[in-house]
Specification:
- The protein is of the alpha+beta class.
- It folds into 2 domains: about 80 residues, no CATH class; about 210 residues, no CATH class.
- The chain contains 8 helices and 12 strands.
- The strands form 2 sheets. The chain has a 7-stranded mixed sheet with strand order 6-7-8-9-10-11-12, sandwiched between helices. Strands 1-2-3-4-5 form a 5-stranded antiparallel sheet.
Amino acid sequence: MDYTQKIKLLNELMLNATPQNVDFTPQNGNYCVTLIATRPVHTWGYQKRNFKIKGRLEEGKTISADLIAENEMLFGVENLPYVAHESDRTPIFKIIRASIFCAYAGLQLTDLHRGMRKIAWSDYPFKKSDKEEQAKAEIRFMKRLASVMTVPDHCMIGRSVVTHLTSTRLRDVILYNKEYEPSLYEKIKDSIESLSHFIPAKDHADNVVPDVFVSQQDWENPRDTYGHQVVILNAKSKRKEQFWWDYLKLNIFLSDLEYYFGYYILMNRWQIPMIQKWIAEYREKGLFESQRAKDYLLFYLKAGEKTPVRVLNSQGIQVKVKMIPR
């Protein structure tokens, strides 16, 4: 079983497990969590419900995890990203759970990274002095990204689309929440109204940087798609409120189970404390947040041609996600 299969199994378990007992030794970071699955989890053809995850966590660094099913050691993984959404007040199980979700989101981020490697450096929207040329470069980049993310042999398709208030994808998610999650719908509606002055209108969408939507296609019926992802770009040419609109979009889309992951590409030189400050202010304003965005949203920072990629979790905290070098 390779790393990808291990993380997928751990993700499935965390989605369907309830902790029964948690042991933690602060002196050395060793932990053991006993879990019961609310529905059977498939492991090599067998359905099992009783699990243990044990290992060691280093605060702010990485986590190791060994998965045990009904007293049988299945596998171990090392260097999971350490994620604690409530800082040092985060319960141990929530740290393990969030860290596994972050690692799962990182699997698909690697595909995005590979796609970006196919784009020539000259086509990247690194900072230009002319604002009009900068805007054109950002639009070209996202259209090119949609093209390279389209891989017919893998039944994967990418599309670049400007997300305005009446765009089909956004409307469908909002209407779904209106029918099935009315409380979320009201929160989304209020948040959109709060940022309405910074949301592009359909009539002025030609000069707006598009988002990229990536989907898997059904092999027999390509019209049927699933496993949706949304990728948004900010080449440091957007105001704080436009950043908030992008962050809101990611939260809205990821509130729908059809959207698996959300990635926010931040290009050019960003200061991580500023990103964290903007996210904190977003929360202080009471704008909509979805739990799945907290779990499956990642920031991808690329400052320049020769600078390494940095990855942040949904709260703007840098995490260790293995990336393939260019």
